[in-house]
Design brief:
about 325 residues, alpha/beta, Rossmann fold, 8-stranded mixed beta sheet, 12 strands, about 30% helix
Length: about 325
C-alpha cells in the first residue's frame, strides 16, 4: 500500500544577510494512513520548518529549494496556490503551538468553525452547527452547543488548544501536522489531549506528525520517530526501539539529558556545546563538534545505514543491543 504522505529530499532554505541558511536539508520520510509519527530534536533543528514546508507555508525570504512532497499521490511542491489552499484544512491541516495564532479574538468559536467549514463547501447552517458541536465534543469540550457562542478569551489555555484542534479536525483531514501543541499546557491537561489525539487517530483514521522537543510526550503518542539535528534526520525507526537502544550518539545525548535517566543526586549529562550556525554548516556530520565518538572520518557526510525498519546516519554508531 502506498503511504499517505511521502517526502523525498525536502530542502528548505532562507536568504539571510549572512548567507543562505539551509533550515531543512534533504529530509525524506513517509507517513501511513492513521499513523502517528514523532519529529523530535532541539530548538532550531528544523522540526517546525519541516512541518510548514509540508503545507507550503514557507514565504520569502524562505523557499523550498528541492525535493518532493506527495499527499495521497498528489505532488504539493510547486502546486498552484488555489489548489493548495483547497487542500489545507480538507486533506492536510496544522495545529500550532500557540492557539492565539489560530483563533480570532473578535469572533465567537461558532463563527470561526462555520468559516472553516464554509471555506471547503459547507452551506447548510444546521449541518455545519451539528458538525461543530460534534467536533468540540470529540476533543473534550463540555456543553459544546453552549460554548459555540463564547469568545476565545472565555476559554482557558487548555480549552483554547482543544478548540484549535477541533477546527483542524472539522473537515476530517487525512493528515494533521501538530507543532508542539501541548508544550504550554500543564501536565494533566497535556495528558488528556494526548489521550484524545491517540483516540482520534485510532477511531477516525487521521494520520499525524507530532513535532516536539519532549521525548516523553512523543514516546507516549507516536509509533515511529524521526530525530532531527541541524536540518537533517539523523535517526528514524519504531519509537520504542529508537528510545530504548539508540544508534546515533545525538539520540543518546537527548535521552541522557532527561531527568528520568539521571541518578538521583547527580547532575544531568548534558550534550556539550550548542547547535551550529546553519549558514556555516560544512559537508560532514554537523553533530561531530559535540560528539565524544567523533573522528576524522566525520568530516565527510556519513551514508545512511539501514537495519530492518531502522535508519541512521553516523560513522561511529552505537552498537546494537544483542
Amino acid at each position: 500500500m502506498s503511504p499517505l504522505l511521502e517526502a523525498r529530499g525536502l530542502t528548505t532554505v532562507f536568504e539571510t544577510r549572512a548567507g543562505l541558511l539551509p533550515a531543512v536539508r534533504d529530509v525524506s520520510f513517509t507517513v501511513a494512513a492513521g499513523e502517528i509519527v514523532g519529529l523530535v530534536g532541539e530548538s532550531g533543528s528544523g522540526k517546525s520548518v519541516t512541518g510548514f514546508s509540508l503545507l507550503g507555508l514557507i514565504d520569502p525570504p524562505g523557499r523550498i529549494a528541492a525535493g518532493s512532497v506527495r499527499l495521497d499521490g498528489e505532488e504539493l511542491i510547486g502546486l498552484e496556490q488555489g489548489r493548495l489552499r483547497a487542500l489545507r484544512g480538507r486533506s492536510i491541516a496544522m495545529v500550532f503551538q500557540d492557539p492565539s495564532t489560530t483563533l480570532n479574538p473578535l469572533l465567537t468559536i461558532g463563527a470561526q468553525m462555520r468559516l472553516a467549514l464554509e471555506a471547503h463547501g459547507g452551506r447548510d447552517a444546521s449541518a455545519m452547527r451539528a458538525r461543530a458541536i460534534e467536533t468540540l465534543s470529540q476533543v473534550g469540550i463540555a456543553d459544546p452547543a453552549a460554548r459555540l457562542g463564547a469568545y476565545p478569551h472565555q476559554f482557558s489555555g487548555g480549552m483554547r488548544q482543544r478548540v484549535a484542534i477541533a477546527i483542524a479536525l472539522l473537515n476530517r483531514p487525512k493528515l494533521i501536522v501538530c507543532d508542539e501543541p501541548t508544550t504550554a499546557l500543564d501536565v494533566s491537561i497535556q495528558a488528556q489531549i494526548l489521550s484524545e489525539m491517540r483516540d482520534l487517530a485510532r477511531n477516525i483514521g487521521t494520520a499525524m506528525i507530532w513535532i516536539s522537543h519532549d521525548l516523553a510526550v512523543v514516546s507516549s503518542i507516536a509509533s515511529r520517530i524521526l530525530v532531527m539535528y541541524a536540518g537533517r534526520v539523523l535517526e528514524t525507526g519504531p519509537t520504542r526501539d529508537v528510545l530504548s537502544a539508540p544508534r546515533h550518539p545525538y539520540t543518546q545525548g537527548l535521552l541522557d539529558s532527561l531527568p528520568a535517566h539521571a541518578t538521583p543526586g547527580t547532575a544531568l549529562r548534558q550534550i556539550p556545546g550548542s547547535t551550529p550556525s546553519l549558514v556555516d554548516i560544512g559537508p560532514g556530520c554537523a553533530f561531530a563538534p559535540r560528539c565524544a565518538r567523533a573522528s576524522e572520518a566525520c568530516a565527510s557526510d556519513p551514508a545512511e545505514s539501514v537495519a530492518g525498519n531502522r535508519r541512521w546516519r553516523c560513522h561511529h554508531p552505537i552498537a546494537a543491543v544483542a
